[in-house]
Amino acid sequence: MSDTRRRFLGKLSFGFGAAAAAQSLFVADRRAGAAEPSGRKLGFALVGLGKLSGGQLAPALQKTEHCRLTGLVSGSPEKARQWAQQYGVPEKNIYSYDTFDRIKDNPDIDVVYVVLPNSMHAEYTIRAAQAGKHVLCEKPMAVSVKECDEMIAASRAAGRQLAIGYRLHFEPYNLEMVRLAREKVFGGLKIIEATVGFAIGDPSQWRLRKALSGGGSLVDLGIYALQAARCIAGEEPIAVSAQAGLTDPVKFREVEESILFDLKFASGVVASCASSYAAVINRYRAAAERGWFELAPAMNYHGIRGRSSDRDGVKDLQFPDVDQFAAEMDAFADCIQNGRPTTVPGEEGRRDVRIITAIYEAAATGKAVAL
Amino acid sequence: MSDTRRRFLGKLSFGFGAAAAAQSLFVADRRAGAAEPSGRKLGFALVGLGKLSGGQLAPALQKTEHCRLTGLVSGSPEKARQWAQQYGVPEKNIYSYDTFDRIKDNPDIDVVYVVLPNSMHAEYTIRAAQAGKHVLCEKPMAVSVKECDEMIAASRAAGRQLAIGYRLHFEPYNLEMVRLAREKVFGGLKIIEATVGFAIGDPSQWRLRKALSGGGSLVDLGIYALQAARCIAGEEPIAVSAQAGLTDPVKFREVEESILFDLKFASGVVASCASSYAAVINRYRAAAERGWFELAPAMNYHGIRGRSSDRDGVKDLQFPDVDQFAAEMDAFADCIQNGRPTTVPGEEGRRDVRIITAIYEAAATGKAVAL
Fold first, then answer.
1. How many Å apart are CA B351 and CA B141, to the nearest integer?
2. What three-state secondary structure class fits B218?
3. How many CA atoms lie within 13 A of A9 on its CB side?
4. Which of A249, B175, B193, B202 could form a disulfide with B285 if both were Cys (CB 3.0 to 4.6 A apart)?
């Protein structure tokens, strides 16, 4: 079975179950249709076959223009075999965490997408780079700035790109917020509000174990608020203060439940941010001289809504609902194929990890931390 | 002309201009109609005939059940005469700031409503109490905790009540926010967001002169966010951190432009608050276990809108749009007439001034302040 067949088999399997009769038609259509702009599609290996990989990334790969799912890395041989069958990945492209380094000998795999618990990002990014692969690593990039430095160094030494999975950099509403700020459509920026949270479920999940997650709502959700604040402000914060909130010390005995953090930028713009694992908060808002613009919900996979307001009233923003992960992976593939640097490099991930470290320090000490 | 006539003349003049033919009819109707529950209406003197008095308080007094405008205190004799004519206040009930203390000999005046720049609240509250009058003082109560203590002591010594002009305590949407929190309609509270701001106009106004205002957006607008956070939380903050924002150092050379402040409560609930004189922000939101409830706009004189959300979706809150100032004054009159303490006493105003002082300290020092 050719790679192309497998790709489409996977697509059909996911969308409609097995539909053998239609396969050749789809493949034929595709072959006759748009050429792959820079030659072959890039092969992606997913490292960690959890909820994000299964619910979002594998399906998104089927929708990409420049990528295909060619490798699977899992601690569960059974799960990997099941996925291989579903997505048409050859058995030889299945790896365990022990055999992972052999990926260097596999030309089917160009990009390793690290979707592991946060504390494992550094190790697998570095091993993937050492195996000569480009790496797309989920956010947060790592659990310390030192790890970020090591990841950047490893990718650089290997001559490979390292991108962080900031999907909202490829989401039209989020991009519009940045444009409205950059072009001063409502005048100079004054205050940014960015809050992200939900009530987390299963108390046994790795996100609540500090050794695996490196932190609570801040590293998982607050990082979106931080990204929003930095991207909308278009500058780096110079100071941060923070307050942690805790109403359920049983569930949140290792990582923070909620955290408020306030950023100050050199321009005098301030950003009021929050994250929570205890309740729903989900909005980015920029208040400028002559109006405001906001997204609410701001960071969902689908269904983002935006509004702007000035003296003429409130207007809905209207953009297509895209597959953010497909857009993210296609953008990375495009950069690799055309030798351009990614817009979300390890250096960008490192900036957030550095600020997150400062936020934790500010919350713990009660002192604003200069950045 | 009797006080009753004057009252209704005033009402008609404000609403419809002079309409002498209709006056006696209205007066007769009123006299024949609902009795004034606890005897006569209480006479209010407005101290300071600025925008709030002219645009809100004098009109609101015409709508009250238990109050009437009987006194005017102004530095401008001409303005006072004009008001006296418009609202049917006798010339003998006009005072200047120099003659103000003679108000003690005037039985027409039961309550002095202090509507002066913030730094003058203490002096006129104390002088009014010493003149034997109940006092309703606009927020912020004063510019220091020491002043608050002196105001409370003066009213207590005089055996008179002191209330602070927290109009939103008498506004149905704001009351509903507190009820939803208190009754845990959406489960336990987790995070409060409260932000209030607008772009301030005239750069020469007293609000931007620290000697008159005592502070910038925080004392004028942030105090609403602080009130919202405290009332929704239903407890007192134990710590606060803050960051000031400044993008226009020419306009805001004496007082703060924007300020973010984060409150932590003993329960572990946190409140993310902000105020601004530079941009429109105007929302209170409470995020709880099973849903959220919010007002946006939250603190306008009219047109407040509210929503709540749980698994069943988002619902609009529906309450009447009331005259908040009329409700505030009627409630105070009712307390006075029935010998019950006001729900918004000087002690409540003092709590806010104390926290505001801590917020300024936190912003200036970069250190969270324990309360």
1. 10
2. helix
3. 16
4. B193
* Residues in chain A, overall count: 371
The pair of structure tokens assigned to A367 is 């002192």
Q: What is the 3-state secondary structure (H, E, C) of A289-313?
A: CCEEEEECCCCCCCCCCEEEEECCE
* Contact (CB, 8 A) for A363 and A242: yes
DSSP secondary structure code for residue A341 in this structure: P
- A195 closest CB neighbour out of B193, B257, B263: B193
Q: Kindly indicate whether the ipTM for this predicted assembly is greater than 0.85, answering yes or no.
A: yes
Asked if the bond preceding A297 is cis, omega within 30° of 0, the reply is yes
Helix H segments across B144-222?
145-158, 172-182, 210-213, 217
Cα A43 from Cα B190, distance rounded (Å):
44
Cβ–Cβ gap B190/A362 under 8 Å: no
- pTM for this prediction: 0.88
* Helix A145-158 × helix A121-130 angle, to 10°: 10
Question: Is some CB atom of chain A closer than 8 A to the CB atom of B247?
Answer: yes
| Beta carbons of B198 and B221 less than 8 angstroms apart | yes
* A304: nearest Cα among A315, A290, A320, A291: A320
Scan for tokens 């969270």, then name that residue. Answer: B368
Alpha-carbon distance A199 to A220, whole Å?
13
- Chain A residues with CB under 8 Å of B248 CB are 268
Q: Which of A332, A303, A343 is nearest to A320 (CA)?
A: A303
- Report CA dihedral (A22, A23, A27, A29) to the nearest 10 degrees: 0
Contact between chains at A285 and B281 (C-beta distance less than 8 A): yes
pLDDT tens-place string over residues A336-369: 999 999 999 999 999 999 999 999 999 999 999 9
Residue A244 phi/psi, 5-degree rounding, is -90, 145
Distance in Å, alpha carbon of B209 to nearest chain A alpha carbon: 20
Which residue among A188, A260, A279 sits closest to B289, beta carbon to beta carbon?
A: A279
For chain B, give the mean pLDDT: 91
Confidence grade of residue B36 (pLDDT, cut at 50, 70, 90): very low
Nearest to A58 by CA among A81, A87, A23: A87
Pair A164, A294: CB distance under 8 Å: no
Residue B199 three-state SS? strand
Which structure tokens are listed for B24? 């006696």
What pLDDT is stored for residue B38 in this prediction?
52
How far apart are the CA of B210 and the nearest CA of chain A, in angstroms?
Answer: 20
**What is the CA angle B336-B342-B343, rounded to 5?**
155
Q: What pLDDT, in 10s, does the model give residues A60-70? A: 999 999 999 99
Which of B368, B345, B363, B355 is CA-nearest to residue B161?
B345
**Three-state DSSP class for residue A98:** coil
Q: Which two tokens stand for residue B202?
A: 């005239």
Q: Hunting for tokens 């929704």 — which residue is that?
A: B232
Contact predicate A11/A62, CB 8 Å: yes
Q: Can you list the domains of chain A with their CATH numbers? A: 35-167 (3.40.50.720), 172-321+346-370 (3.30.360.10)
Q: How far is CA A11 from the centre of its chain?
A: 22
Of A247, A269, A274, the CB nearest to B268: A247
Cα–Cα distance for residue pair A114/B108, rounded to 1 Å: 78
Give exposure, A211-237, as e/b (b: 16+ Cβ within 10 Å).
Answer: ebbbbbbbbbbbbbbbbbbbbbbeeeb
Token pair belonging to B32: 């024949």
